[in-house]
Design goal:
TPR_rpt; TPR-like_helical_dom_sf; TPR repeat; 684 residues; mainly alpha; repeat; 28 helices; two-stranded antiparallel sheet; Serine Threonine Protein Phosphatase 5, Tetratricopeptide repeat; Putative tetratricopeptide repeat-containing domain protein
Length: 684
């Protein structure tokens, strides 16, 4: 059967391995047809699978698959056909996952595991397949600990029952890499992907034309991009294209080629080579249109990415399809590139020469305050606190031994680097008081001191301390978890940093509930009342609160462990635009609608009641007359459209069963999923 979610994941080059009709073996305990009477119920597994395939083939899965699967479970159970029932449960897991029915899927997962154990399948290929499907369902539900445990069990089983060069082992490593990527562990994701590629190379008759290996190269390129390793990411993105080119020369035309093109475009976009990115996106779009048509999420996502690349290329004055280089008008790399160059060419050699015993214990990178840590710096950022810099993070023991001397050496190489790499006549970027002394942004730090300076905590609060998590603002957590780590062999810094990345699920749900309340209060309730009262300043304040709560909600819905936290107000919309440009982002089109609300805010709050505007293209096309409407009416229509989209997403996530679009009434449904009874997590 066609797994639509797997197709989407494959297109974005982050594909799952799912068993497709894999659990079909009969056990010795299954009665043969000859021992059953004509009156006894029977279950035909092949017929079940054919019927399911037919539902997907006629594109009616949304309405027909669920009742078909539920009836099949009943039929298999009535027939006493445990093997058939296990097949149905495995297929049901995949379908429920594709629909976002994660809560319903928990019961299916538990039942499948219990049934497989009762059938004595532990240690068999069918056991491995069932574990893979269960793990993937748990990962989709964001139950990451359970998913990791199930994947690990599946891998152990697979390595015992599959041949060493079996591609299913490679697929399992790929699945683990996806889990690590989603939980903010790019280094672990990179490790699993490299193992995936090792297995595929050994399994392949010709690695130079192996499409699975090409997909893994694209996956690794995107993972390296998340780690800030843009040069390495480009190398692997180009390797994927080379494999596809060689395969196409031999007549192998794979749908994954579009994913490879989109991956290459994404890397080039990150490198600010927008013209090249647009060329690759355009080619990917043409392939998708030929293969799937325009009425697909694949086409719409890529078309939007192409538009953004074209806009960026136009703004940057870059021609399409042409490689771009730094020019005399823009000779300086961005702050993160500058930091990485400074580290590689001066910092790392200094550590190896002066502190060889400690070099492997010191973490280096750029994290914390400053636009370059978020990747938002530009020419305007260079007027203060800008220049080559990085941080060195030490354990308390190592800092006591070498901290002060290492700081002096850092200051020495920083001065020398600036003198050597600053062009004559280039404007000086002064250091402001807020970036000096105890609040300095670079140099040598104790790990605990560094995080305490940002959050007030030397390490993240305990997972069972929700009141402490709620005292940490999202912008504070964003500052503590942004940037890039260039080196951390010891892992002490990354471990502490990841502690702040994993907000407890109950806290995330509580914050979602709070944001729903503020969106309803400010945007749906108070804004119309303030407008009726003619209180423009209060109406403007309501729009501000609505926008801030909505931006926060988008990040929370997408899970900060995967996409990061919403930063402080200055960079919130830049971060939201970047998040919305990512493939498979939930509520991706909310950004454009919010921007239109803010564009109309002044006219809506302070203009005459008779003023009119034209309905824009980013908002709800069907909710207002496409002719002229008042700015206030347009703002109201967009807000209601955003709220309806939020409800739709809550339903897809299994967080509500209600269609009510006044978001205050959605809060109890969300809070039903909070496990802890801590009062601070629940609304009054």
């Amino acid at each position: 059967m066609v797994d639509e979610e797997a197709l989407l994941a494959q297109f974005t080059a982050r594909f799952d391995q799912d068993a497709e009709h894999a659990v079909t073996a009969q056990t010795d305990e299954t009665a043969s047809d000859e021992t059953q009477s004509d009156a006894e119920a029977t279950f035909d597994t092949d017929r079940f699978l054919q019927g399911l395939d037919a539902i997907f083939a006629r594109h009616t899965a949304a309405s027909e698959a669920a009742p078909y699967l539920e009836q099949a479970m009943i039929d298999a159970e009535n027939a006493g056909d445990e093997a058939g029932l296990l097949t149905v449960l495995n297929e049901t897991m995949g379908f429920y996952r594709s629909q976002g029915w994660h809560e319903k899927n928990q019961w299916i997962v538990q039942r499948a595991i219990e049934l497989a154990l009762r059938m004595g399948l532990e240690g068999t290929e069918i056991w491995a397949t069932t574990l893979i499907n269960c793990a993937t369902a748990m990962r989709a539900a964001q139950h990451y600990d359970q998913a990791e445990d199930l994947y690990t069990q599946a891998l152990q089983c697979a390595e015992n029952v599959y041949p060493p060069k079996d591609r299913r082992i490679a697929a399992l490593h790929n699945n683990l890499s996806m889990l690590y990527q989603e939980t903010g562990r790019p280094e672990a994701a990179e490790r699993e992907l490299r193992e995936t590629m090792r297995v595929l190379r050994e399994a392949s008759d010709d690695p130079s034309t192996d499409i699975d290996l090409a997909s893994s190269c694209t996956n690794l390129a995107l993972t390296l991009l998340d780690e800030g390793k843009t040069d390495d990411a480009r190398d692997y993105a180009d390797k994927a294209l080379a494999i596809h080119t060689a395969a196409r020369a031999q007549g192998v035309d794979s749908a994954h080629y579009a994913a490879a093109l989109a991956g290459a475009a994404q890397v080039r976009f990150a490198q600010r080579q927008y013209g090249e990115a647009a060329g690759y996106y355009r080619e990917a779009l043409n392939l998708i249109e030929d293969r799937y048509g325009k009425d697909t999420d694949y086409w719409r996502t890529t078309e939007e990415n192409l538009r953004k690349a074209l806009d960026a290329a136009k703004t940057a004055g870059q021609s399409i399809d042409e490689p771009t280089h730094r020019t005399a008008d823009n000779p300086m790399p961005n702050g993160m590139e500058l930091a990485r160059d400074f580290w590689k060419q001066a910092g790392k050699p200094m550590l190896l020469e002066r502190y060889p015993r400690y070099a492997g214990r010191i973490a280096a990178g750029l994290v914390g305050y400053g636009s370059e840590c978020f990747g938002f710096d530009d020419a305007y950022s260079r007027d203060h606190d800008f220049g080559p810099r990085f941080c060195l993070w030490l354990t308390d023991e190592d800092y006591a031994a070498i901290g002060e001397s290492l700081q002096r050496d850092y200051e020495r190489i920083a001065a020398a680097w600036r003198a050597e790499h600053t062009a004559p006549g280039a404007p000086h970027s002064p250091t402001t008081p807020r970036a000096q002394g105890a609040t300095r942004r670079d140099g040598v730090f104790r790990i605990g001191d560094f995080f305490e300076g940002i959050t007030g905590y030397r390490k993240a609060p305990a997972q069972d301390a929700p009141h402490e998590w709620l005292m940490l603002s999202e912008s504070t957590l964003a500052t503590a978890t942004n940037g890039r780590v260039f080196a951390d062999a010891l892992g002490a810094f990354s471990s502490t940093r990841q502690g702040f990345t994993f907000m407890p699920e109950d806290v995330r749900l509580s914050l979602i509930s709070r944001r729903l309340g503020m969106i309803a209060q400010a945007g749906q309730y108070n804004l119309p009342r303030m407008l009726k009262r003619g209180d423009g300043p209060a109406a403007m304040a309501s729009i501000h609160e609505f926008a801030q709560a909505t931006v926060s909600l988008v990040f929370l819905i997408n899970n900060p462990a995967s996409v990061g936290y919403a930063p402080y107000y200055k960079w919130r919309f830049a971060a939201l635009r970047r998040l919305s440009a990512r493939m498979v982002t939930r509520l991706a089109d909310v950004c454009g609608q919010l921007e239109e609300v803010l564009e109309l805010a002044s006219a809506a709050c302070f203009a005459d009641a008779d003023s009119v505007t034209h309905a824009g293209s980013t908002g709800p096309a069907d909710s207002v007359d496409s002719a002229q409407v008042s700015p206030a009416d347009r703002v109201h229509a967009i807000i209601e459209h955003i709220c309806a989209e939020i409800v739709g997403e809550l339903r897809r996530e299994g967080l509500t069963e209600s269609d009510e679009t006044f978001l205050e009434w959605q809060r109890p449904y969300v809070e039903e999923h909070i496990v802890s009874d801590a009062p601070c997590l629940h609304s009054l």
